[in-house]
Description:
Shape: elongated
Radius of gyration: 17 Å
Strand content: under 5%
CATH architecture: Up-down Bundle
Structural class: mainly alpha
Bound molecules: fe (ii) ion
CATH class: Mainly Alpha
Order of helices and strands: HHHHHH
Amino acid sequence: MDITELILDDHHEQRRLFAILEQIDRMETGALSAIWARLAAFLELHAQAEEEIFYPALLQAGIAARRAAGVEDETLDAIHDHNEIRDAIAEVARHQVGTDDWYAAVAAANLANSDHMAEEEREGLTDFRRLTGLPRRHQLAVAFAAYEARNYAGVRPVDKDPLGYVRATEKKLRTAPSGSLSVGSMKRN
Ligand SMILES: [Fe+2]
Ligand SMILES: [Fe+2]
């Protein structure tokens, strides 16, 4: 397994669920509600799993390769984007399912998520493959899959300060024994 492949698989599932929503008649509010609820919970869980497991590992690998500035920028961007996606998801809940406003809010969430996924795939995932070997990516894939399985019902959405997140993660990396961050050990900040 490879954590970058699992993240790509999740992105595909997100694109698929947005596409399904677009093909359901607006009168079928029960189906729209159920699929949006599933997608919203999945988007939150995916972002949280990345913040717990992928981005700490990206920072660690970049710092070890003396490329701290590059991975810090990518992580700051990602946390900022995750906040935007969380806020867009919250906005959907303010509208009645199947109305024009509801569709507009779903479209805004789709746009925020699409932009973020494209950047994450082009930058963070690509850099991580260059910086790490397959055994490490397999180890992290196990942690990522287990995190999503344990929290399959969803996680509480909490916006994070991007700089605070990077600083807290780097502090944890510095204090971890032999420089290895135990995966999934990040706490919310
Ligand atoms: Fe992400
Ligand atoms: Fe992602």
